[in-house]
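job 3f2a | input accepted
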Amino acid sequence: MTAAASLLLALAPVLAGCAASDSLAQQARAGDEKNYIAGDGSVREYAAETRGEPVEFSSTLFGGKTVDAADFRGHVTVLNFWYAGCAPCRVEAKDLQALHTQFSASGTQFYGVNVRDEAATAAAFERTFGTTYPSFEDRNGTVLLAMTRYVPPQSVPTTLVLDKQGRVSARILGTADKGTLKSLIQAAQQS
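job 3f2a | predicted structure (191 res):
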């Protein structure tokens, strides 16, 4: 057996282990036609010195108003990527609304980023779950494309917390736990 073949045989279990632990890749290969890839619930906080530049995009809300990400500066902002057919999005909707209500008095802004729905479908979801914060109509991918460093394509829901400088301070892949998101918002308010 050659040295190269021996090395490949020795590395095979290691390489297989790396691929097996990627839950997003496993879901993508599953072929279960659920139409979304659920995040694993992982939370990532970015230290202030590693946050980089403020996010940049300009997009339109379902109500027709155009919002520029530069308008986020001076406020902690929560961006939640969702669509109506996403079961985890329905699970977290009530908690997101409760946090929006709790933190709006302190100037924290919430925006949904709807990646698939037309206005009527999004409005029905918002009525059903009592969501009152605005959402971007992002079927064209403007916001998603601007955020690909933080939001894997098709990983919905994903929630980002932006600090007062408009930089991503935290990310939750998958359903946002209310207590965790509350802590991430509070941490961003302090930074």
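job 3f2a | The longest strand covers residues 77-82.
job 3f2a | closed
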